[in-house]
Amino acid sequence: MRTVTANKTVRAAAVLAALLGLMTMSASAMHIAEGMLPVPWAIGWGAVCVPFVVAGFFSIKKKIDQAPRAKILLAMCGAFAFVLSALKIPSVSGSCSHPTGVGLGAILFGPLTMTVLGLIVLLFQALLLAHGGLTTLGANVFSMAIAGPILSWLVYKLLRKTKAPAAVAVFAAAALGDLFTYVVTSVQLGVINGGMVKFLTIFAVTQIPLAIAEGLLTVVIFNVLEKYSKTELHELQVL
Amino acid sequence: MGTDRYAYQSCLRRVSPLPKLLLTVVALVICLCCDSVAVGIATLILMGVLITALGGLSPRVYLHFLKVPLIFLVIGCLTIVAGAYPAGTAVVAAIPVGDSLWGFTADGLWLGGRIFCKALGAVGCMYFLALNTPVTDLTMALGKLHVPKLLVELMELIYRFIFVLAETAANIRTAQDSRLGYRGFRRSVSSLGMLASMVFLRAWRKAERIYTALESRGYTGGLTTLNDAYRPGWGLLPLAVLTAAGQIAIWFVEGRLLG
């Protein structure tokens, strides 16, 4: 009887150690690396993104035709998204990761604009930092520049409609957008060779603390912005 | 930042970006389509040779850059390889957990190894482009390939602004760090939040100033620049064909040996 319990303890310890090891490892596993997707899937995800990116492109074009100043501002916003994703975010589990910026971008610029800015930012991340890749660009754009932002934006608008406090809405939008991005990524990886549950478990263990950290961070950012740059936020029609 | 610095120093810097893009795309597509261990490793080595011999990059830097995506690849492949199997499955190594075995099977290892090697080859191809072509050249090439003008312009502007904002962010971070702003989780989050919002604010103000400066110089919505004088780089075209031929030959040889 005693050996059985001892065995169980050892097993539990082994599983725990493995999970902790993964936790520090997958600190920045949000991008699908170059070459991880077979050709049909790479093309498929790219094709899925096309209508969203085209819609985003025309919405940006309309904005710029109305006010040429918007072009410079949008470019600055894109660069901000890149720099934001390159920052190191402290995580509850002690490891470091990078914020996705999915929630903040969606709240500030809207999901349509985010598709185009996200596409450019992800391309630059692939080329300059080797985060993500050229063939996996479609899949990454879908998870990080389309699915995540749309969910974030919906959550934010919905919670604001129900008169929830701004901080709650921002936190929920950022954290849920983050989580949804990871869910989409694990589905994209898992659907090919099976084992979606595996990817989801690993992501759940490692990414829930990160999502909470990013949610808190986004609330802090939003509070400071609300204090010091009300006019800019009004121009973006966030408030 | 990242590969950018080395791209400007590359010996292929003055070569027109289009043949470089072509070589990359061809090698990348073949590497992915073959989906084999040998082709993946061969592509990786071949790209390493091309980058160091033609681009003049030191092999140590190439190896250093290969380490960057490695962590993504290892996690992804480990997740594919490791799994829970019902008791009685033929496994290579496993620990029993409850009724099932957690570990690796031979098939799983083979699959993971194939994906890993294929992905490494693909990363090598991407680096051939990234380490030899500055982004400004690449955007120009995209313009020639009839990517919408607005998109290309946005890319050029974003590329420029990234460096401006990254410098601002790094300065603020140093200032915060020297005042113990990153001690503990709570303080880190508040410092980082302040940093991000200040960078946003400065970005916005800077954009307004840039727009004013542009408008006072007669800006009407387009930034036209002259193309650089490139060397045509026709020599890269036979090289692309040779690379493709080599990859396919290795694929055939591997197929023969295994099957």
Q: What's the helix and strand layout?
A:
The complex is a heterodimer of chains A (239) and B (259).
Chain A: H1 2-25, H2 39-66, H3 69-86, E1 89-90, E2 96-97, H4 102-109, H5 111-129, H6 137-161, H7 166-193, H8 196-228, H9 230-235
Antiparallel strand pairs in A: 1-2
Helix pairs in contact in A: 2-5, 2-6, 3-5, 4-5, 4-6, 4-7, 5-6, 6-7, 7-8
Chain B: H1 4-9, H2 17-34, H3 37-53, H4 59-81, E1 83-86, E2 93-97, E3 100-104, H5 106-130, H6 135-144, H7 149-178, H8 185-215, H9 236-258
Antiparallel strand pairs in B: 1-3, 2-3
Helix pairs in contact in B: 2-5, 2-9, 3-5, 3-9, 4-5, 6-7, 7-8
Mean pLDDT of chain B: 86
- The number of distinct β-strands of chain A equals 2
| Rounded radius of gyration of chain B (Å) | 24 Å
Strand content of chain A: under 5%
Number of strands of chain B: 3
Order of helices and strands of chain B: HHHHEEEHHHHH
> Which segments of chain B are poorly predicted (pLDDT under 50) over 5 or more consecutive residues?
none
Shape of chain B: flat
- How many domain regions of chain B? 2
Number of helices of chain A: 9
Assembly state of the chains shown:
heterodimer
Return residue spans of chain A where pLDDT drops below 50 for at least 5 consecutive residues: 19-28
Task: Describe it.
The complex is a heterodimer of chains A (239) and B (259). Chain A has 239 residues and is an all-alpha fold. Chain A has helices at 2-25, 39-66, 69-86, 102-109, 111-129, 137-161, 166-193, 196-228, 230-235; strands at residues 89-90, 96-97. Chain A has a two-stranded antiparallel sheet with strand order 1-2. In chain A, strand 1 and strand 2 form a beta hairpin. The longest helix of chain A has 33 residues, at 196-228. Chain B has 259 residues and is mostly helical. Chain B folds into two domains: 2-133 and 230-257, no CATH class; 148-216. Helices cover 71% and strands 5% of the residues of chain B. Chain B contains nine helices and three strands, in the order ααααβββααααα. Chain B has a three-stranded antiparallel sheet. The longest helix of chain B has 31 residues, at 185-215. Chain B is flat. At the A-B interface, helix 1, helix 2, helix 3, strand 1 and helix 5 of A face helix 2, helix 4, strand 2, helix 5 and helix 7 of B.
